């Protein structure tokens, strides 16, 4: 083979997107022995047995084919029923719900279906690592709205209003939030919704952590006045039902948006794998008690983790949802990356540096408490030692 440099033939948008800060850090983790990882945003539970069994049973019955592009109608009906029961929002399962390969695909489809080059997408920061790259890859321009611990990592309606330009098309929200664990009150969201209506914005609402809400009640954005028609609601099974590897999510929204997303999906994915869809159907039918048990475990760990950081002298925002804590590690005198790298090297504990989630994450680290109590207590023993060596307390 000739040694030609092919990189200039790659789409410049793809070249412009940096590799995920999380992935980069995990290459380092892979090279280190005896690591306790509190880095990955993934339940430490195996998918409940009845869900796995339903999938096995479906295979025994021969369900191995393509499904409709939209996904199994029975699953879409179950999703619609779940959304109506939980949030009193009604979607037509025939043309307002699309089953996707995780929320990841739904996010990508929403961006590609909605954006034309130059369209601006407002994103609260720190933000989930996919938001900016998916925006850029779809030709859009991410516009970040920084949040801080002082404001409980929440955005305000005023912040949204002042970030709007004539090119703003989409507001992307994620509460409960990854990486901060922040949640938003209904009244605050309602004010933001008013701004969205006033400026005719489309809202993509990533509610993948909705069931992992520990403080107050989750507000489904589409349930707010004037919002359902302009909201692309994203959710899935990865977090609530411990089903990350099954790759099932969905988008719900008006038939124009969902129809456009389905058009892309039918040519790229064709459909979401039937095995995952069968499992997701069982999760919605019978998975609520198991899901609530897992959420109870996360909630207990949440208290322990926040307290453990405070006992060490590291300020830690109290997360109201998801399974992340976002301690302010800059009290050690180290920056985010230095803290994460030194902690890994010296004590073999892996966290994600906060700046992987954007500039306003600098000075923080993301700690996933979706880990066993044994791992958490050993990790905290090591971290306390490290933090003491840095001169805190
Ligand atoms: N959205 C957020 C905020 C996430 O944290 C994640 C995964 O960590 C995803 C989407 C991706 O979810 P899925 O597994 O459904 O693709």
TrEMBL record:
Its cofactor is pyridoxal 5'-phosphate. The keyword Transferase applies. Keywords: Aminotransferase, Pyridoxal phosphate, Transferase. GO terms for molecular function: pyridoxal phosphate binding; transaminase activity. It comes from the Bacteria. It is an enzyme of class 2 (transferase). Residues 34-374 form the Aminotransferase class I/classII large domain. One of its GO terms (biological process) is amino acid metabolic process. CDD domains: AAT_like. Its EC number is 2.6.1.-. The keyword Transmembrane helix does not apply. PANTHER family: ASPARTATE AMINOTRANSFERASE, ASPARTATE AMINOTRANSFERASE-RELATED. Belongs to the class-I pyridoxal-phosphate-dependent aminotransferase family. This is Aminotransferase. It comes from Desulfoscipio geothermicus DSM 3669.
């Amino acid at each position: 083979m000739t040694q030609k440099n092919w990189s200039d033939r790659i789409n410049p948008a793809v070249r412009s997107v940096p590799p995920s800060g999380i992935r980069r850090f995990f290459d380092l983790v892979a090279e280190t022995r005896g690591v306790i990882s509190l880095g990955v945003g993934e339940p430490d539970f195996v998918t409940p047995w009845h869900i796995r069994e339903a999938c096995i049973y479906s295979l025994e019955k021969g369900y191995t084919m393509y499904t409709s592009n939209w996904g199994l109608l029975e699953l879409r009906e179950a999703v619609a029923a779940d959304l109506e029961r939980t949030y009193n929002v009604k979607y037509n399962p025939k043309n307002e719900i699309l089953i996707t390969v995780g929320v990841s695909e739904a996010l990508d489809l929403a961006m590609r279906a909605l954006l034309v080059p130059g369209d601006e997408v407002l994103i609260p920061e720190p933000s989930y690592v996919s938001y900016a790259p998916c925006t850029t890859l779809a030709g859009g321009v991410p516009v970040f709205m920084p949040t801080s611990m002082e404001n409980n990592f929440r955005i305000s309606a005023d912040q949204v209003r002042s970030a709007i330009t004539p090119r703003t098309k989409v507001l992307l929200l994620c509460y409960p939030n990854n990486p901060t664990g922040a949640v938003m009150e209904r009244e605050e969201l309602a004010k933001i919704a008013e701004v969205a209506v006033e400026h005719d914005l489309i809202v993509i609402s990533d509610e993948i952590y909705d069931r992992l809400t520990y403080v107050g009640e989750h507000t489904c954005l589409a349930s707010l006045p004037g919002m359902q028609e302009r909201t692309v609601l994203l959710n899935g099974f990865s977090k609530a039902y411990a089903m990350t590897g099954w790759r099932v999510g969905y988008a719900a929204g008006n038939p124009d948006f969902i129809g456009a997303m389905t058009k892309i999906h039918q040519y790229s994915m064709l459909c979401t794998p039937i095995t995952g869809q069968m499992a997701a159907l069982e999760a919605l039918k019978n998975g609520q008690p198991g899901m609530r048990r897992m959420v109870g475990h996360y909630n207990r760990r949440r208290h322990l983790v926040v307290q453990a950081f405070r006992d060490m002298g590291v300020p830690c925002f109290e997360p109201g949802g998801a399974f992340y804590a976002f301690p302010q590690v800059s009290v050690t005198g180290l920056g985010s990356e230095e803290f994460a790298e030194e902690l890994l090297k010296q004590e073999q504990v892996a966290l994600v540096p906060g700046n992987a989630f954007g500039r306003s994450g600098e000075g923080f680290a993301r700690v996933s408490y979706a880990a066993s109590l044994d791992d958490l207590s050993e990790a905290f023993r090591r971290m306390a030692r490290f933090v003491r060596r840095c001169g805190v307390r």
